[in-house]
Amino acid sequence: MSVNGKPKRFSNKFASPTSTRPMKKGFKRPVAKPVSDPVIVLFNKPFDVLCQFTDESGRQTLKDFIPVKDVYAAGRLDRDSEGLLLLTNDGKLQAKLTQPKKKTFKTYWAQVEGEPDAASIKALCQGVELKDGMTLPAKAKVIDEPAVWERTPPVRERKSIPTTWLEIQICEGRNRQVRRMTAHIGHPTLRLIRYKIGQWSLGDINCGEYKVHKQES
Questions:
Q1: Distance in angstroms (rounded) separating the CA atoms of residues 193 and 186
Q2: pLDDT for 147-156, tens place per residue?
């Protein structure tokens, strides 16, 4: 395992996507070929960075932070969200992490407006009705404010309204799902950090930095 820096705590240092189109009847999705030197890159994505390597508008992308060649994001993380993004050259792992049937749990830390009560937390755990249907049961709880990096720019908080940090674990990958879930219970998300995907977590990776794990081929 090679490490980009050896941070002790968080600081403020600064795809080949899997197709989801239905296959024609009689055809099978091609099986990903094994690679001779599989790697997994764990990246702590900063706010306002795109989950792609190029951008015609000149916005910050993965290329500004990750020099590792031939790796692609396994899933996505919204531009206005932060935290763990996995990249790999292993097609099988990429498929495992992105296919809904695999039900890979992802853990998020969400700073929300207001103070959700027990009923609101229970609603998140049981599932809430969004425009695209009911969410699957989630794991949700109130947590202490985590010791994370300062966001640039800072979160806009209203002094008259307190904020609360929630830990939410989901195994779905709907567009902006966590934000829509907290909005549904009346507590909009102000800041969203993904901490864990399956067995992989941020650990002590600083904002804007990464670690490379070599896998057995």
A1: 19
A2: 999 999 999 8
Q: In whole angstroms, give the CA distance from residue 35 to residue 46.
A: 29
Q: How many CA atoms lie within 13 A of 143 on its CB side?
A: 16
Is the pTM higher than 0.90? no
Contact present, 110 and 191 (Cβ < 8 Å): yes
Dihedrals phi, psi of 39, to nearest 5 degrees: -135, 155
Write the pLDDT tens digit of every residue in 7-30: 445 555 444 444 444 555 554 555
Q: Which residues have a catalytic role annotated?
A: 78
Percent of the chain residues topping a pLDDT of 70: 83
In eight-state DSSP terms, residue 101 is G
For residue 14, the model assigns a pLDDT of 44
Angle at 75 between CA 71 and CA 76, to 5 degrees: 100
The two structure tokens encoding residue 15: 């795809």
| Residues 182, 183, 187, 189, CA torsion sign | positive
Q: Look at residues 99, 88, 78 and name the one whose alpha carbon lies nearest to residue 171.
A: 99
Axis crossing angle, helix 177-184 with helix 118-126, rounded to the nearest 10 = 140
- Alpha carbons 15 and 173: distance in angstroms, whole number: 16
DSSP conformational letter for 104 = -
